[in-house]
Amino acid sequence: MRLSLEEKKVKGKMNYVRLRIFLSFYILLISLIFQSCNLDVKNNDKPLPLAKKENLDSLISECLVCHSNKEAQRGPVIHGMERWYLIDQLEKFKSGVRGKRPSNRSEYLMGVGARKIENDYQLAFLANWFAEQNPLPAIRTVQGNIEEGKEFYLQRCSSCHGENGQGNRLVNAPSLQRLEGWYFLEQMRKFRTGERGYHPSDLGGQAMAAASKEISDRNLKNVVAYSVSTFGPKEEISNREKYSPKKSKKPF
Ligand code: HEC
Ligand code: HEC
């Protein structure tokens, strides 16, 4: 079909208008994606597209009620854990892959905590926030034979978690460098009895549960004592040592 000069002009103009609409739609889309990816809100006083800064701050404080090393602590310290692992675990708690069994009381408690997270944006924000915090020191609570623990660790754990407990994302194995002794030991016992890592879609949990089968209590304590003292969090002095009067240097 042949078009007259006038018709060609009109068609060209329409194409131009379409192109502009198309381009501005793309620019809008890209800027929306950028905004929602911009998780660093520390220096950003403007309201975020999906959540207000104050709401996010109060959400963090709710997590810190249970996740700090203060006296009334009920959950593990998660400061400085890897972002991918935090996201992974929060998704497990949200979907009920972890934390749905009332018999596992502490996990169940966190299942309640996870309901405070309303959407994926908040979830990613929280994981990012905790991942960026400096690790907190911990009181040493588990005693064991360090030499035996080392041997056991190198035989049974380092293939997935790395020689220095640095973790290996390729096999979903988290770093063990932030774990406090009491929580570390508790989780090992839960993996061993099947209180954690039982859900059919919890592949990482199942791998770890299989790796914990039939470890004796003695070996568990040794491996935890070794890990925490070798590559674990810095040691925090206990309150008893902090507040009791210093020993006099004078001889009696
Ligand atoms: C009522 C107390 C409580 C609140 C509130 C709470 N948690 Fe927890 N959380 C726990 C406990 C207890 C555990 C340990 C579960 C276990 O023993 O298996 C836990 C475990 C976790 C873990 C898994 C850690 C690991 O090493 O596998 C993550 C991640 C976590 N919480 C993040 C959060 C975030 C983020 C918030 C805020 C929305 C939050 N929690 C609110 C009690 C709480
Ligand atoms: C086959 C690989 C594999 C081996 C071997 C293995 N792990 Fe794991 N481990 C994992 C995976 C995967 C996870 C993550 C589980 C999850 O997603 O809930 C994990 C999780 C853990 C956790 C929980 C961390 C947390 O923050 O809650 C601890 C503690 C742990 N492993 C210690 C050990 C120790 C100690 C050994 C040796 C006795 C060991 N693992 C051997 C793969 C392994």
Q: Care to describe what's here?
A:
The structure is a single chain. 56% of the residues lie in helices and 0% in strands. The chain is an all-alpha fold. The protein folds into two domains: 49-136, Cytochrome Bc1 Complex, Chain D, domain 2; 137-236, Cytochrome Bc1 Complex, Chain D, domain 2, CATH 1.10.760. It is globular, with a radius of gyration of 26 Å. The termini are far apart. Bound molecules: heme C (HEC) (2 copies). One heme C (HEC) is lined by residues 88, 156-157, 159-161, 171-174, 176, 179, 184, 187-188, 204-205, 207-208, 211, 223.
Sequence-ordered SSE layout with sheet pairings:
Elements: H1 5-37, H2 53-66, H3 83-95, H4 105-114, H5 120-132, H6 146-156, H7 158-161, H8 181-193, H9 203-211, H10 217-231, H11 239-243
Bound molecules: heme C (HEC) (2 copies).
One heme C binds next to helix 7, helix 8 and helix 9.
Low-confidence stretches: 39-43
Fraction in helix: 55-70%
What's the CATH superfamily of the largest domain, by name? Cytochrome c-like domain
End-to-end distance: 114 Å
CATH fold annotation of the largest domain: Cytochrome Bc1 Complex, Chain D, domain 2
Tell me the domain tally.
2
Secondary-structure element order, N to C: HHHHHHHHHHH
Q: In the CATH classification, which architecture of the largest domain applies?
A: Orthogonal Bundle
CATH class (first level) name of the largest domain: Mainly Alpha
Count of strand segments = 0
| Biggest sheet details | none
From the spread of the alpha carbons, the general shape counts as globular
Structural class: mainly alpha
Portion in strands? under 5%
Overall pLDDT, averaged?
85
**Count the helices. How many?**
11
What small ligands are held by the chains?
A: heme C
**Global Rg:** 26 Å
